[in-house]
């Protein structure tokens, strides 16, 4: 396997990490066929041996787009925080692992948005208490609602943004979040 790079998150994919976060995907990567980035989940069209990340001309991003990207950072951190806590609250071991993998993926999405917007500081959100979600079923229901919200967010703003690069990225991330909805319905 030649080393590959995801043009969205910038992570290198190799024989040591091609199965990273596998608990959060419906399909599997193999050494012969990388179907998606194991770090951010985008499909193979964003993966190549070329080490260049998606280029964004930040001077073309107006305040409206930057505000949308800033909110996307917070949305993904909020969901990453939830999955991190859910991984601690879940009873089932496979569910714990899936939530932990989803947490890492959502945080990677936040990093993608930070890169796009040129934001240096990672926002610190309120520490939420999720202890009232006292069963695996409830944790999965909340996860599904969060993923639906993320899909709706990307879909809504994809229609209003006038930047093809951002639209392409939002579309790719929306597909990842749709797959997460399928995972939460199992």
Q: Which key phrases capture this entry?
A:
mainly alpha; Ferritin; three-stranded antiparallel β-sheet; 3 strands
Helix and strand element order: EEEHHHH
Helix tally? Answer: 4
Helical fraction equals 40-55%
How would you classify the helix and strand content by structural class? mainly alpha
What form results from the Cα inertia axes? Answer: globular
CATH architecture of the domain at 58-184: Up-down Bundle
So what's the CATH class of the domain at 58-184?
Answer: Mainly Alpha
CATH fold annotation of the domain at 58-184:
Ferritin
CA-based gyration radius: 16 Å
The N- and C-terminal alpha carbons lie at a distance of: 32 Å
Describe the overall structure:
With 186 residues, the protein is mainly α. The protein has a domain at 58-184: Ferritin (Up-down Bundle). It is 52% helix and 4% strand. The protein has four helices and three strands. The chain has helices at residues 63-89, 93-117, 136-158, 164-184; strands spanning 4-6, 12-13, 47-48. The protein has a three-stranded antiparallel beta sheet with strand order 2-1-3, with no helix packed on it. Strand 1 (4-6) and strand 2 form a beta hairpin. Helix 1 (63-89) runs antiparallel to helix 2, helix 1 (63-89) runs antiparallel to helix 3 and helix 3 (136-158) runs antiparallel to helix 4 (164-184). It is globular, with a radius of gyration of 16 Å.
């Amino acid at each position: 396997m030649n080393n590959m790079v995801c043009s969205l998150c910038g992570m290198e994919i190799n024989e040591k990490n091609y199965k990273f976060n596998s608990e959060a995907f419906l399909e599997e990567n193999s050494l012969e066929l990388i179907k998606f980035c194991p770090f951010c989940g985008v499909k193979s069209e964003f993966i190549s041996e070329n080490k260049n990340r998606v280029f964004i001309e930040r001077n073309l991003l107006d305040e409206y787009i930057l505000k949308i990207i800033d909110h996307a950072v917070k949305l993904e951190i909020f969901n990453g925080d939830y999955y991190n806590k859910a991984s601690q609250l879940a009873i089932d071991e496979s569910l714990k692992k899936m939530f932990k993998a989803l947490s890492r993926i959502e945080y990677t999405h936040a990093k993608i948005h930070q890169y796009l917007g040129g934001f240096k500081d990672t926002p610190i959100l309120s520490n939420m208490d999720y202890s009232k979600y006292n069963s695996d079923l409830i944790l999965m229901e909340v996860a599904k609602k969060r993923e639906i919200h993320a899909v709706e967010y990307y879909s809504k703003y994809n229609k209003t943004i006038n930047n093809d690069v951002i639209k392409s990225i939002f579309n790719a991330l929306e597909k990842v979040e749709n797959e997460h909805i399928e995972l939460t319905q199992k």
